[in-house]
Each structure stands twice: as structure tokens, then as C-alpha cells.
Amino acid sequence: DFQLLKEMGCNTIRLYHHALNKNKELLRDLYDNYGIMVIMGDLLGAYTVGSGASWYDGTDYENPEQRKNMMESARKMVEEFKDEPYILFWMLGNENNYGVANKEKEKTDSCSRFGNEVAKMIKSIDRHHHVSICNGDLLFLDIFGKHSPDVDIYGTNAYRGKYGFGQSFWGSVKDVCDKPVIIAEYGCPSY
Fold it and tell me: Are 120 and 114 in contact (CB under 8 A)?
């Protein structure tokens, strides 16, 4: 599979450390022999992973116990992988702004504020890799722009269909937070 990835022009993959078998030798092989790097992620309570919340209650980014659990999860990720040569940067969350199994719909700034705290913690441990988030499209972009100054890269999963990534997308990010953008997932329904 690594050779096929290389042949199709892949240079980076995204993984989340939570369920990773931690086969660092395999990831080193991916990098050393195929030139493919890794964006390592922590779900930051998405789908309740790492927060300790139940699915029905959902992650609450203001809950002290859950915040402690998520902070420790991100810390563990960074401490475990920060010196690996294949790490490109860190990614926090996966569409947390959509409010699936978390309180983000009720407390729309809590995840951005907490994500910023996690970014600061990561930078205190690792000054060599950038930190990104991974939101769903541009929902709550203004809140992210206001409350996440320490997050370096705006990441997004954007399934825009026939509307694509024109000026409405790039212009919005430039106007609101003026950060580099990574499109972590994209696709078109049937256009």
C-alpha cells in the first residue's frame, strides 16, 4: 500500500493516536522509504473519544474532568510522537464544531477556547511542529478566529459539492482568521 500511495502522489496521511497500534517502525518505514509524512491527531473529545463523557451526554468543553482527560490525551500524543521524523504537524479534533456527541451547539465558543489552551500546552512541549484544528467546513469560523490565536492552521473537512472552494471559501478564511488552511477531507456528492 505504501508504494501505491507514493505512486499516486501522496506525501502525507492523517492518523489519530487514540486507537493507533503505535507501530512506530512501520511509520518510520512509510517516511524513510516512501517519503510520506504523518499529521498526527487527537480527536479532542469528538464523538466523546478521550473526554470520558458518555455518547448521550456528549463532551462538555467546560467540564473540568473532561478537560483534564482531553488535555492528558493530547499531551500523551505529543510526548510519544514529537521526536519522530515523520510528524508533519498536530491536528486537534474532527468536525467538533458540528456538535455531534458534544455540547458545541449549546456553547459555541467552548471548543475553540479549549482548543487554544491545548495548542498552548502542545507548544510548551514541542516548538518544532505546528498545531491545527479540524473543523467541519466554515461553521463557527468567526468564533474560531476570535478564540484560537495560538492554533497555527485552520483545518477543515469540506464536502462542498458543486460549490467548490472558490472565493467564498478562501476569502472567508482570509477575512476572519488569516491562517494557512489544510483541507483534511473533501469530496463531491455526485457532481
Answer: no
* pTM reported for the whole predicted model: 0.94
Q: What are the E-state strand segments in the chain?
A: 12-16, 37-42, 87-92, 130-136, 153-158, 181-186
Residue found by looking up cell 476572519 in the block: 176
Are 116 and 107 contacting, i.e. CB atoms less than 8 angstroms apart? no
Query: Which residue is listed with cell 463557527?
Result: 140
Is the pLDDT at 123 greater than 90, yes or no?
A: yes
Three-class SS state of 175? helix
Assess contact for 186 and 158: CB atoms under 8 A: yes
Q: Which of 184, 188, 187 is nearest to 15 (CA)?
A: 184
Q: Which residue in 87, 76, 92, 85 sits closest to 125, CA to CA?
A: 76
